[in-house]
Design brief:
The complex is a heterodimer of chains A (352) and B (268). With 352 residues, chain A is of the alpha/beta class. Chain A has helices at 14-19, 49-59, 76-81, 97-107, 140-160, 206-223, 247-268, 277-282, 300-318, 346-351, and strands spanning 41-46, 63-64, 118-120, 123-125, 163-168, 172-176, 199-203, 228-233, 272-274. In chain A, 36% of the residues lie in helices and 11% in strands. In chain A, a hairpin with a 2-residue loop joins strand 3 and strand 4 (123-125). Chain A starts with 13 loop residues before the first helix and ends with a helix. Chain B is an alpha/beta fold and 268 residues long. Chain B contains nine helices and ten strands. Chain B has helices at residues 36-44, 62-65, 82-89, 114-125, 133-145, 148-158, 191-206, 235-238, 246-267; strands at residues 26-32, 53-59, 68-71, 74-77, 96-97, 103-112, 162-168, 210-212, 220-221, 225-226. The longest helix of chain B is centred in the C-terminal third of the chain and has 22 residues, at 246-267. Chain B starts with 25 loop residues before the first strand and ends with a helix. Classes of the chains: A alpha/beta (352), B alpha/beta (268). The interface between A and B is medium-sized, with 23 and 20 residues.
């Protein structure tokens, strides 16, 4: 007698797909919905792990889309310092779906401008990206001039990209309770002053995140019909939680919710896919080998394995791409922070 | 310090003639690359009045300029550049020692601000291309500090010498294609836009003890190009957008002299 499992391929069974293999040799974790070619413009945004993806794509000669280019005279180290070339636009890390939605709504005039400015020692900080300009801006006028640039770059990225990669990072966030907008980081950690009357903690629930992501995808698709979206979940644990839970269980909760949202969206929408970088880094079969001793930072070898899976699974699904000699692989811009990645959340560690 | 206030005691300035001046004449040496030709022509043509100032020139054109080595206030040419230096100095000076003059005025000397103006004037007019003053300053710092004779100027100033720097003039318009093809909006810049960038460059140099002199507005067209009226003779036929006329050179000399006079007046 046959049953539904009789004819399933080896990758459907743990023994043949996992237990029998060196974990570094496991492939086929991703069955991509769409092909990504070197010529495609690929925008990246999200949590700090998205920086690795952008760098790896650019390093392999893929057309990573820099929608907010640094001045050509600015030297490489200053580009990284001023957060150029880290993501496709200078938002800094976008940790939550609500924050991505907020940026898109601002970019397309779908919500009122956010005019709050943090002043410190005569300098001006953008509460939506407080570490984007080292030492802050010279004036509020300059801050908003720069804000206009990033909003224009977001529009470019959405409208001109072929693929938009978004790495979901956190469910926890801080909001302005009166004005109803979300901050990039808790006020008072990197800049600004915390005020319990004004600033409220919010841990996004799955339904709300799903709603926010659906709105995000609707805005994007309306502006760019050919756009495809690739979701990932950051494998980097929370630096700190304000949820009242232990940071380890809070991390599991946060990542589980985000992973479930990604899965749901992939099931619902043809143009949305999920790449399992989260599983490759965090799954017990990899025995934590991709984490640095602090069990949080991802080591370069881990990023390499993740990206090798990415390229191999693309090849397995669609075949080799013919080499395009015209586009040379370019070295990724070096960046400070967590092993070359700018991780604003890391600042919390310094203030905890 | 010799004064500008005693023209009757000053000798007539001669090119390369540091030794021909009277003791009280202010010794001013222009140092530069092939752009010095405009100054020399302006000076020799008598266009620039230089009473009370002994003007000399030091430098070498193009590749030979790169063979001039600077160290501790002194410039020494590599052997292959000696003849080129002699041509500029009239043969009586091979090495340059900042201690032998009262004022060192660098002209051009490979400090090309064209790229700075093009990029930031263009960005100022393009929605979404805004950059902060900090970013501009870092770009300026990179541009300036990658120029050997800007570093030399700062070092001379740090050693107590009086130093002026006049950057390479903007490319001449309508000579060789459109220099602003990659930064078209720069052509729309107003004199105020340009002045704001000059202010930043001046401030950067002043903080390091060097007086920077900006290109006169009356010579500028289309945001950051030089009016073809100031092109070197035969520039159009040669496709030479770089070198400038004797009139332009004379204007620079007058500008430098005026700045010295202003400095003297302010010092009193």
């Amino acid at each position: 007698m046959t049953h539904p499992y009789s004819d399933l391929p080896p990758e459907a069974f743990w023994r043949t797909a996992v237990a029998a293999h060196n974990p570094l040799k496991i492939r086929g974790l991703w069955q991509p919905k769409f092909r990504i070619l070197r010529k495609h413009r690929i925008a990246t945004a999200g949590s700090c792990f998205a920086q690795h993806i952008g760098q790896a794509l650019a390093g392999r000669g893929y057309n990573w889309f820099n929608a907010e280019e640094a001045p050509s005279l600015l030297p490489a180290e200053a580009r990284a310092e001023f957060n150029y070339g880290i993501f496709s636009f200078r938002t800094g890390n976008i940790y939550t779906a609500a924050m991505l939605l907020q940026w898109l709504q601002l970019a397309y005039g779908l919500r009122d401008p956010i005019e709050e400015v943090w002043q410190q020692h005569g300098r001006f900080f953008d509460p939506l990206r407080p570490v984007i300009e080292p030492g802050g801006f010279a004036s509020a006028e300059e801050l908003f001039g720069s804000r206009e640039s990033v909003l224009a770059a977001i529009r470019r990225a959405v409208e001109e990209a072929h693929v938009f990669v978004f790495t979901m990072g956190l469910t926890e966030s801080w909001r302005n309770l009166q004005a109803g907008f979300e901050y990039a980081l808790c006020p008072g950690t990197t800049a600004g002053t915390f005020d319990a009357e004004t600033h409220g903690f919010h841990n996004h629930q799955m339904g709300a995140i799903l709603d926010d992501m659906r709105k995000v995808l609707r805005i994007m698709k309306r502006r760019n019909k050919r756009l495809r979206v690739l979701l990932t979940v950051s494998p980097v644990p929370l630096t700190a939680t304000a949820s009242g839970q232990h940071v380890l269980t809070a991390t599991t909760y946060s990542k589980s919710v985000l992973r479930a949202v990604a899965g749901q969206l992939v099931d619902e929408l043809d143009f949305v896919d999920y790449f399992p970088s989260y599983e490759i880094v965090t799954h017990p079969i990899y025995r934590g080998m991709f984490f640095a001793p602090n069990q949080r930072t991802i080591v370069h070898e881990g990023v390499d394995v993740v990206m090798q899976n990415f390229f191999d699974d693309q090849t397995a699904a669609f075949g080799d791409e013919k080499p395009t000699p015209a586009r040379k692989a370019r070295p990724a811009a070096p960046g400070p922070g967590c092993g070359g990645v700018k991780c604003e959340e890391e600042m919390l560690g310094a203030f905890a | 310090m010799p004064s500008l206030d005693a023209p009757e005691k000053a000798a007539t300035a001669k090119p390369g003639g540091a030794e021909t001046a009277t003791a009280k004449a202010l010794r001013l040496c222009f140092i530069g690359d092939s752009n010095l030709a405009a100054l020399k022509l302006g000076h020799d043509g008598g266009i620039a009045e230089a009473a009370g100032v002994d003007i000399s020139f030091y430098g070498a054109p193009g590749p030979d300029f790169r063979a001039l080595r600077y160290s501790d206030g002194v410039i020494v040419p590599d052997p292959q550049a000696v003849e080129a230096v002699k041509l500029v100095t009239g043969g009586d000076r091979i090495n340059f020692d900042a201690a032998e003059v009262d004022v060192v005025a660098f002209f051009a000397a490979r400090f090309r601000v064209q790229a700075f103006f093009e990029e930031f004037l263009h960005r100022a007019s393009v929605p979404g291309a805004f950059v902060s003053a900090q970013v501009r300053m870092r770009a300026l710092e990179a541009l300036a500090m990658s120029t050997r004779y800007v570093r030399a100027a700062f070092d001379m100033a740090a050693r107590g010498h009086r130093v002026i720097f006049v950057p390479t003039p903007f490319l001449t318009d309508a000579i060789a294609g459109d220099p602003l093809a990659k930064a078209p909006m720069a052509a729309q810049a107003t004199p105020d836009d340009r002045a704001a960038l000059w202010d930043e460059i001046e401030g950067f140099f002043a903080a390091r003890g060097v007086t920077l002199l900006r290109q006169p507005d009356e010579t500028v067209v289309r945001g950051c190009l030089t009016d073809p009226a100031f092109a070197a003779i035969g520039a159009e036929a040669a496709g030479d957008a770089v070198h400038k006329s004797a009139e332009y050179g004379a204007m620079v000399i007058r500008q430098v002299l005026a700045s010295l006079e202003t400095a003297e007046i302010s010092a009193k």
